[in-house]
Amino acid sequence: MDKFSNFPTTPISPARNGEQVSPSDSTDLSQVSRALYIGQGGDLNVVMADGATILFEAVPGGSLLPVRAERVTASGTSASGIVALW
Q1: pTM recorded for the entire structure
Q2: pLDDT over 70 for what percent of the chain?
Q3: CA distances for 76 relative to 26, 39, 43, 64, 70, angstroms
């Protein structure tokens, strides 16, 4: 039972879905993320929803980054166990 299923999804509400991320220099995520979970720490290079490329250095494992990313690039990314949430 989901008591909150009739509530609107907003940028600050909890994620409702997600997928494992395989970093790629050419393939976008199936959905722009609302957040990225980082399982194993390292650097994370992402293309943001507006097209800017940002390198997050030394992201600790277990982190949840509230970013709207359209791609996690293989180049520059050493973190693993990445999950996109939306």
Answers
A1: 0.91
A2: 100
A3: 14, 17, 7, 19, 16
